[in-house]
Amino acid sequence: MSLLDYFRISKVASASLAKERLQILVAHERSSRNQPSYLPQLQQELLEVIRKYVNVDQDAISVNFEQDENQETLELNIVLPETQR
Amino acid sequence: MARIIVVTSGKGGVGKTTTSAAIAMGLAKKGHKTAVIDFDVGLRNLDLVMGCERRVVYDFVNVINGEASLNQALIRDKNCNQLYILPASQTRDKEALNQEGVGKILDDLKKDFKYIVCDSPAGIEKGAHLAMYFADDAFVVTNPEVSSVRDSDRMLGILASKSRRAERNEEPIKEYLLLSRYSPDRVKLGEMLSVDDVQDILSLHLLGVIPESKSVLNASNSGTPVILDEKSDAGQAYADIVARYLGEDKPHRFIEDKKGFFGKLFGGK
Ligand SMILES: Nc1ncnc2c1ncn2[C@@H]1O[C@H](COP(=O)(O)OP(=O)(O)OP(=O)(O)O)[C@@H](O)[C@H]1O
Ligand SMILES: [Mg+2]
Question: I need a surface site. Which of A47, B33, B43, B138 has the fewest CB within 10 A?
Answer without folding.
Answer: B43
